Amino acid sequence: MSELLRVSGATLVLFARTLRSIRREGLSFRQTLVQAYALGASSALLVGMGMTFFGVVVTSIAYAQARKYVGNVTILGPAYFELIVREFAPMMTALLAASRSAAATSAELGAMSVNEQIEALELSAADPIAELVAPRLVASVLSMPALSVIGIATASISAALSVTYLFHADGWSFVDPRFIERGDVLCSFVKSVLCGAFIPLIASVRGFAARGGAASVGDAVTLGVVGACMGCLVIDFLVAATFLVIGL
Amino acid sequence: MQLLRLGGAIGLVLARTVLHLPKLDRRELGRSLFLFGYKSMPLAVGTGALIGSTVVLQAGVYANKFGTRQYTGWAAGYALVWEFGPLLLGLMLAARIGARNAAELALLSVNGQIEGLRGISLDPFRILVVPRVLASAISVTALSTVTFLVAIAWEGISAYFTLSLPLRVFFNSFSELLGVGDLAGGILKSLAFGTAIALVSTAVGLRATGGARGVGQAAASAVVMSCGSIFALDFLLTPVLMRVFGT
Fold it and tell me: Fewest C-beta atoms under 10 Å: which of A22, A75, A162, B146?
């Protein structure tokens, strides 16, 4: 419990310090672009592949449910499309991107911290937070919604195709935006922005905390990825509950 | 090319694990079970609670829309046992077990300790690999049942609060419409995911080269590859298991 409080406190403090260092030192456009490639663009393949598989599995669940009770799988199509947009795609995308980018971030920062390169940066009067964390935070916040769009697109297309060709029903009902409202898109967007902000922060907290030898880098990666995945689930739940309460 | 090589490495690890199974080191197995299984309990319970409440939160909207509130228990339980329970638990444990296992093995092989073990005629597969693969498969399977239990309890609770659905109605539709086959499907999926996590992370960890940086990279790529293989396995197994156990 105290561990949980300490980690969430450290994440908040790092967030505040990152914002302050961006205001003070500015943001390196070049570094942000490099990180947007490293954290965002290189996760695109993983997200696309994962969500393609996921779309097929979701339709086989829908098909099994429909066969038992509704009768026709196409009735469930619009509802499942809304669920993909609102819930599945942002959550799964965030989890996949979390495992990839949190692992990369905490491995890199952990290795730097173990080799005392962070102290070296401080000694040469550079702010390690402005140099290392700020570009990652901005890049991840910007790229996560884009990844989420890729996730929604690949999952829906593979759902539509698999319904058409595997279950021989009208697949276009799975891309029928009948139930999609402004609230769904907003909910999806808020989820991916918050997860995008949280993932590099927790990974940096765990990376900076690595001390000792190479073993602690491995520990930092484990803790960073687990924290990022768990945090994304919590954010997902909190945002879903908030949107349900305010009725969007 | 890289993928092919990794596939071959995974196949080799699997084959050697099966071959070395009779010569298993019992004490290492116990240690790995404690590390992988018992120490991941809080994670499994937390994951279960979060999935359970989120699934009901989202399914509840449709339950009201279609006027099928009394089937919420079945719909939410079905989605949980077949898909979200095994998949999310698998992703979480890929991060936890996979990264730790890969980092530990990578550290040993980067420092030449694997060769050291061979040098004093101890078989690294017998002490390091077989117990971990076995422990990971057993742990993920066992933890999946815990996750299902916690998630179903939370589904009932959050259905009571958000849909004001009485607990008895929820669990009636749950127990009437879901059978042992559904549960077996979910648990078998978790078993496959657990085995995949261990095999992938072992193969990645043993191939690590290049000092301290290599250890971090091995841990990171083990997580990514385990996640990828979990999604691929999910895709391959769902139709097969549904045909065998589906109701």
Answer: A75
Contacts of residue B175, Cβ cutoff 8 Å, sequence gap at least 6: none
Position B172 confidence tier, pLDDT thresholds 50, 70, 90: confident
Helix axes B180-206, B85-93, angle to 10 degrees: 20
Q: What are residue B87's phi and psi, to 5 degrees?
A: -65, -50
Nearest to B134 by CA among B9, B17, B44: B17
Q: Are B63 and B69 in contact (CB under 8 A)?
A: yes
ipTM here: 0.80
B114, pLDDT greater than 70: yes
Distance, in Å, from the CA atom of A38 to the CA atom of A11, rounded to the nearest integer, reads 22
Please identify among residues 78-137 of chain A the ones whose CB lies closer than 8 Å to any CB of chain B: 79, 83, 86-87, 91, 95-96, 99-100, 103-104, 107-108, 110-111, 114-115
Whether B94 sits inside 8 A of A58 (CB atoms) is: no
Residues A177-199 have a mean pLDDT of 87
Chain-chain contact of B219 with A107 (C-beta, under 8 angstroms): yes
Does A217 contact B216 at a Cβ distance shorter than 8 Å?
yes
Q: Which residues of B touch A213 (CB under 8 A)?
A: 212
Across residues B156-181, what is the average pLDDT?
A: 79
DSSP line for B182-243: HHHHHHHHHHHHHHHHHHHHHHHHHT--SHHHHHHHHHHHHHHHHHHHHHHHHHHHHHHHHH
Transcribe B197-208 into DSSP letters. Answer: HHHHHHHHHHT-
Residue A64: band (very low, low, confident or very high) from pLDDT cuts 50, 70, 90: confident
Query: Quick check: B20 and B126 in contact, CB under 8 A?
Result: yes
Closest CA to B81 of B148, B138, B143: B148
Mean of pLDDT values over A26-42: 86
Is the distance from CB of A103 to CB of B75 less than 8 angstroms? Answer: no
Query: What pTM does this model have?
Result: 0.85
